[in-house]
Design brief:
With about 270 residues, the chain is mainly beta. The protein contains three helices and 16 strands. The chain folds into two domains: about 5-125, Pnp Oxidase, Chain A (Roll); about 155-235, Thrombin, subunit H (Beta Barrel). About 5% of the residues lie in helices and about 35% in strands. The strands form two sheets. The chain has a nine-stranded mixed β-sheet, with no helix packed on it. Strands 10-16-13-14-15-12-11 form a seven-stranded antiparallel β-sheet, with no helix packed on it. The protein is globular and about 75 Å long.
Length: about 270
C-alpha cells in the first residue's frame, strides 16, 4: 500500500507583525521557528495557477476562533492585505518543502462563525491603475502626504462618548461641540475602546438636531455594536471640491484637482458654448 507524507502549510504575516502558521496535517509542524498548528481550522482550496503574469486564484477558509482569527480583528481590518505564503511539506522531514504560493489576502468575508478570504498573487498590484487622473475634483485622500492636512486638531476631529446607538449605524448625541451641520459628512467614525475597539465606518449623514443634539449616520453598520460610554472619534469629511478645500480646510495650495478643466459637454461639442 502506498502512503504519502505530504501536507500543506500556510504562514500569514499581518502588517502589525503578528505571524500565524496553519497546516492541514494532524500534528504541529515547526518551520523557521514558527509553529504551524492544525487546530486553527484553516484550509485552502485548490490553487489555479498560470504561467506568465496571470493572477493566481484561490481561497482560504476556516473557523473564527479566539486563539487565531477573530471576528473583531477581521472587522477592524487587521487581516487586510496580510502576506501569505503556502508550502507543500513532507511532514516526516519538514525541511523538504516546496513553495506553491506567495501573495496576500484580498477580500475577507465572514458568516456563521467562519471566514473566507480571497488569495491574491504577487502580480495582483500590476492590475492597479497607474498615473494621475485629470479631474475637477481632488485626487488626494484627506490627510495623506499629497493633501498634507493634519486632522488631529480640534477643528477637524473630536472625541466623544457613545450616548445612543441604533443598529451599530446611527449615533445620537444630546450635547455636541459647535461644528456646523454636515461638518463630518464623508468623514470617518473610529471606535477607540470597548468591544468594538478598532472598528471604523464612513459617515453618510451628519445632522444637527433642533434641540441642539446631533445624529451621525454611517453608510454601513459596524459589525460589533458599541455600547453606551464607549469612546469614539469623529474626523471631518471632504467632498473633493476646490471650494471645500479653500474654505473648509484652507488648503487650496495643495489641491490635487483641476477645477478649471472644461466640462465633458464642452469637450464633446466645443462650439456649442462659444
Amino acid at each position: 500500500m502506498t502512503t504519502t507524507t505530504i501536507c500543506r502549510a500556510w504562514l500569514i504575516a499581518r502588517k502589525d507583525g503578528l505571524r500565524l502558521g496553519f497546516t492541514d496535517h494532524d500534528a504541529v509542524l515547526t518551520l523557521d521557528g514558527v509553529a504551524f498548528r492544525p487546530d486553527h481550522g484553516m484550509n485552502a482550496r485548490s490553487l489555479m495557477q498560470a504561467s506568465g503574469l496571470s493572477v493566481d486564484n484561490s481561497e482560504a477558509e476556516g473557523a473564527l476562533t479566539d486563539g487565531a482569527i477573530t471576528e473583531q480583528d477581521i472587522l477592524a481590518g487587521k487581516w487586510d492585505s496580510a502576506e501569505l505564503t503556502m508550502w507543500e511539506v513532507d511532514w516526516a522531514d519538514p525541511m523538504r518543502r516546496k513553495k506553491v504560493f506567495a501573495g496576500s489576502l484580498g477580500e475577507v468575508s465572514r458568516s456563521r462563525g467562519a471566514f473566507r478570504a480571497e488569495l491574491r498573487g504577487l502580480s495582483e498590484p500590476l492590475n492597479a491603475a497607474q498615473g494621475r487622473v485629470y479631474h475637477p475634483r481632488c485626487s488626494a485622500r484627506l490627510g495623506d502626504d499629497a493633501c498634507t492636512m493634519k486632522l488631529d486638531g480640534a477643528a477637524y476631529s473630536t472625541v466623544l462618548d457613545v450616548e445612543g446607538c441604533e443598529d451599530g449605524r446611527i449615533f445620537r448625541f444630546a450635547m455636541f461641540p459647535g461644528y456646523e451641520s454636515g461638518w463630518f459628512e464623508r468623514g470617518v467614525l473610529m471606535m477607540r475602546n470597548g468591544q468594538a475597539e478598532g472598528l471604523q465606518g464612513a459617515i453618510k449623514n451628519d445632522t444637527a438636531l433642533p434641540d441642539g443634539g446631533r445624529e451621525v449616520e454611517l453608510w454601513k453598520s459596524l459589525g460589533i455594536h458599541p455600547e453606551t460610554g464607549d469612546r469614539l472619534r469623529l474626523i471631518a469629511g471632504c467632498d473633493k471640491r476646490a471650494e471645500t478645500c479653500r474654505l473648509k480646510f484652507n488648503n487650496f495650495l495643495n489641491f490635487r484637482g483641476f477645477p478649471h478643466l472644461p466640462s465633458e459637454d464642452w469637450l464633446l461639442a466645443p462650439r456649442a458654448g462659444g
